[in-house]
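Figure S4 source data
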Amino acid sequence: MKITELRELSEDELHSKEGELKDQLFKLRFQHSLGQLDNAVKLRNVRKDLARVKTILREKSKETE
């Protein structure tokens, strides 16, 4: 997901996206531990997307202070 797309979302949408990505990351880690994950790049991409969402949430909270 691109950073410009994330910046257009509201804080509520970003919080829901964060929960969604955490759930997806959990499932991918579980598959990886069982040896069922075919493409490990998915794991890295989800981690990076989650970091992007958290960064934008932090920036938005700093703006309101």
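Figure S5 source data
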Amino acid sequence: MSDPSSDCKDSKNGLAGVTAGHTSICSLDKTLRYRGYAITDLLECSFEEVAHLLLWGDLPTENQLREFATRLHTHAQSLPETVLWCFSRLAKTSPQCSIMDVLRTGVSILGQIECDNGPEEMPHHRDLSQERFKAEQLLGHVPALLAAWIDCISGRQPTPWPKKPLATALLEKLCHTQISDNAANVFTKTLILYAEHEFNASTFAARTVTSTGSDMHSAIATAIGTLKGPLHGGANERVLQQLMDIGTLENVGPWVARQLENKDVIMGFGHRIYKSGDVRARLLHEAGHQLDDKSASFEPHRKLEKLANKVEAVMFEKKRLKPNLDWPTARIYHALGLPINLFTPLFVVARMTGWTAHIIEQMSDNRLIRPVAEYRGPSPRQFIAIEDR
């Protein structure tokens, strides 16, 4: 998600600023828009509405939304027994493995079960409705994979998927309790804001796989592996770890100074696209205030917020950097009682919408993605036979 605060000066490094294709799904010009709609307006929607918009191209009518949500619920409650059996075995042999690896493995198994070999028609003559229905399956299956794995490593039998909006159902499954409307609303906003973001690293990786003619499940597995990296999806986990490392308000200044002196990355600040601040961070920061219930049990999080506010002030003073989306999201997930190792997997649940939309868009007008590299190795050298070296 975030880039290092000391971004490389070479604009070609990491393809910074390079236009690598076109899309009708998301624009970052002036403000974030999904298929033309400003993100500020879409935050008033349910996650299912935004998922339908990204996948099918339009906001749904009431009937379309009801049918779409029903299909997602059906998929969420119908994980194949083969997957559940594999998860139960993995939970016994590898309980400490990364949940991102679990999700990647789960998607691969689902691809095998579905015998997903990609679109059958030739390029430019494809009916991609079946790919959209595969995408819907994955939108329901992936949150269910996450909840099932948590049940397995906790020694519980996976329970049926609740008949509730996807965000509410998932949060209740993970927290094992009924959640408040405020909590459901704020959690939904995190998923909407994480849902799509143009040609980010994982989306571009998924489109590259798709461009070879490969299948949706392979592209999604690749995207999950890409998102696992700490400079992309894993940044939200590092945000909370940083705040825990700082500990007290008095430590903020020395900690930031030490990080900058050592040229260590400070996660949660700066963005390769948003040079003057990430609109998503501002919107989610405002939404996070809804979680403060004034109770004594919330006091540790209020202290964490004061610590975060001071870090923000010091970072702006020292580097003129503003927060990106990972900064408030990590604190909100912490306030909701979610463990750190769930932060990036929740990013996966949200970004499934954007990934599948981009995969289908790539399929619809495909050309193999094959960039070129600037060679900077040795100049031409004379070959010497091994016996003369």
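Residues 2-11 have pLDDT under 50 and may be disordered. Residues 129-153 form the longest helix (25 residues).
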